[in-house]
Write a structure and sequence with these properties.
With about 150 residues, the protein is mostly helical. The protein contains 6 helices and no strands. It is globular, with a radius of gyration of 18 Å.
Length: about 150
């Protein structure tokens, strides 16, 4: 089971990097990071609508929508920030360095979310092994960019 989950996570990682390269190319072709980001979200929206239809996922009821935390609706804002930054930086840094810095940022933020149980994440202790892993990851980013 772990192997299957690891394979899916690896596929997600490949998709993630390809998305950024495609978005950067579209931005250069269109001459607009804004329209490239819009195209990315439009494509994602269409895919999610098709998936909801295929899975027969009903639209959430009003009470379910009303009791959702206000901050839970902000994912698209953070996604747009991420896509805009990636479109601008990939041509300047390259995909390997960009993804390295991205993963370092994700790791550092993840350690904070885990440690304090923020945004609904179950709290996890911050021990020396987790800190060492984050330090090694940042060192890897420095080596990739060197």
């Amino acid at each position: 089971m772990l192997l299957g989950l690891a394979a899916l996570a690896t596929i997600a990682g490949v998709s993630f990097v390809v998305q950024q390269a495609v978005n950067a190319h579209l931005s250069a072709s269109l001459g607009s990071a804004v329209w490239a980001g819009f195209a990315s979200y439009l494509g994602g929206t269409v895919c999610m609508l098709l998936l909801a239809y295929a899975l027969r996922a009903g639209f959430p009821a009003g009470p379910v929508l009303a009791r959702t935390n206000w901050w839970a609706w902000g994912g698209g804002v953070f996604g747009a920030l991420y896509i805009g930054i990636s479109i601008l930086l990939i041509p300047r840094l390259g995909t390997a360095a960009f993804v390295g810095f991205l993963v370092a940022g994700q790791m550092l933020c993840s350690l904070i979310l885990d440690r304090y149980g923020l945004l609904g994440v179950p709290p996890q202790p911050l021990d020396w092994l987790r800190i060492a892993g984050a330090v090694l990851l940042v060192a890897g980013v420095i080596l990739i960019r060197a």
